[in-house]
Specification:
By secondary structure, the chain is mainly α. The protein contains 23 helices and 3 strands. The N and C termini lie far apart (47 Å).
Length: 480
């Protein structure tokens, strides 16, 4: 079917109509000539099937040169696609690259900010960042990478916003290695790559996601290469490791705020986990899907996905408790206070029982983790003072080394303090979170700080609040 869904016809393109149609037409013809399905080429290019289909159909032109160059290379086009892409007029301002058509973040509707953030993230194109418009509102926009690097944002802002983080296409360009290179390792390739994954996880906790993405995607490709000539137990072990790396890649993109890429890699992990036949791994990935739905405030899917993960997990297991933790937050998002508190109480009461579970998944489920999620739900339900108190206690008990996670919890605690009418405390805690955001480039922290910035507007003349808002403003892009 050449990568198209059953019953779906490819769009008829007229190359003479526009440069965008000419690009799509050429891309489709080259793909067919190289015997790639649409889905197969998308997988090789580390991008979503739907995005590549929009390119081919002339519905949406590419915006990221690195991705066009990668596809050009995969199709052995000799620069033809890059040349045609350069003839398409850029859809954003050549000077600032800031689109001002996205909805603004109002004090009463963070949902609009989330929608704009997801819209910018959904394309993997350019760099999506929070930007301050002239009217003072904040929108999440896609900036042209080259324009941004030319000087649209200062050094501290670039660090906070993740500039320098490779795109999916850039990180996917890795050297192929033959399976026989396994002999170069002092231990087995699986053991070597397992150790590398643990180091990347530690790196992510300390430094944030942007430092780990490129290596993670390179390792996924290396594992695929090693699987080509592997058999039996070795082949299954590599497939399981590939699944684990895919889940980790999803987490890194989720923390950056690139929810489309996060969903892409979770879908891959879910598919591959079925190939492995590891029930715990599959139920864990399903629970992560519920967590991502909560992160994006998907009121339709969050509880359903969490309940599905709980059904898939072994009864009374740690993974069942992990799923119920995310279910509790889903109920809170939907305003279902009684169901939310009942679910989180069930998890708290199960901690002693599940502590001896031998599964390697969800080992971080402890009292502090559950309390943080309890506080997160209470804040959503409007119980701000109680949420702030629980956040503060949980943050104090957090182990060393969880630098980025501490920043996320600090930002959420600051929002709770503001909701409880304690602006000075909110600003002070917000300052700490902002420091971690600059260190790590965490989009999750930045998104919480956007909420904090808006909630502090009633106290903007107070010195502590004004100081925080000025410092936060310094890490935002600005409409010229």
């Amino acid at each position: 079917m050449e990568g198209h869904q059953v019953g779906q016809q490819a769009h008829v393109l007229r190359p003479e109509q526009s440069p965008q149609h000419r690009f799509g037409y050429t891309l489709r013809e080259l793909r067919k000539a190289r015997h790639f399905s649409l889905r197969g080429l998308a997988e090789k290019a580390f991008m979503s099937h739907s995005k590549l289909q929009k390119w081919e159909n002339g519905d949406r032109p590419p915006k990221d040169r690195a991705e066009v160059e990668l596809v050009d290379s995969l199709l052995r086009a000799g620069g033809v696609l890059v040349d045609q892409w350069e003839r398409i007029s850029p859809p954003v301002s050549a000077t600032t690259g800031v689109s001002v058509s996205a909805p603004h973040v109002s004090e009463g509707s963070i949902g609009l900010a989330t929608a704009a953030f997801q819209q910018a993230a959904s394309d993997h194109e350019g760099i999506f960042v929070p930007a301050r418009l002239r009217d003072g509102s904040v929108v999440f926009v896609t900036l042209d990478r080259r324009a941004l690097l030319r000087g649209g944002v200062g050094i501290s802002a670039a660090a906070a916003l993740g500039v320098g983080t490779p795109t999916v296409a850039e990180a996917g360009v890795v050297a192929r290695r033959p399976a026989r290179s396994a002999a170069a390792y002092s231990d087995t390739p699986v053991e070597h790559l397992q150790r590398a994954r643990r180091l990347l996880i530690d790196n992510d906790n300390l430094l944030g996601p942007r430092h780990a993405i490129k290596a993670t995607l390179e390792h996924i490709q290396a594992i695929k290469d090693l699987r080509q000539d592997s058999q039996g137990v070795d082949r299954r072990s590599l497939m399981e490791l590939q699944t684990q790396y895919a889940e980790f890649a999803s987490w890194l993109y989720q923390d950056l705020g690139d929810f489309d890429s996060a969903q892409f890699w979770l879908d891959r992990a879910f598919q591959w986990s079925h190939t492995v036949g590891d029930g715990d791994l599959t139920s864990y990935v399903m629970a992560r899907k519920a967590q991502l739905a909560g992160e994006t405030r998907d009121l339709v899917d969050v509880v359903d996905l969490a309940e599905a993960a709980r059904r898939m997990a072994r009864p009374r297991s740690r993974l069942a408790a992990v799923a119920q933790t995310y279910e509790s937050y889903g109920h809170a998002l939907r305003g279902e206070s009684t169901d939310s508190e009942r679910a989180i109480d069930d998890v708290r009461n199960s901690l002693d029982r599940v502590s001896g579970d031998t599964t390697p998944w969800g080992v971080w489920l402890n009292e502090q983790y559950v309390e943080v999620h309890r506080a997160h739900g209470l804040e959503v339900l409007g119980k701000h003072a109680e949420a702030a108190e629980i956040f503060t206690s949980a943050i104090k008990a957090l182990p060393d080394g969880y630098h980025r996670d501490r920043g996320v919890y600090l930002a959420r605690a600051a929002v709770a303090h503001a909701g409880a009418g304690a602006p000075d405390e909110a600003a002070a805690v917000g300052f700490q979170a902002l420091t971690v955001a600059k260190d790590t480039g965490s989009g999750r922290i930045i998104r919480e700080l956007v909420r904090l910035d808006q909630s502090l507007i009633p106290w903007q003349r107070q010195a502590e609040v004004a100081d925080f808002r000025a410092n936060f403003d310094a890490v935002l892009a600005h409409e010229s």
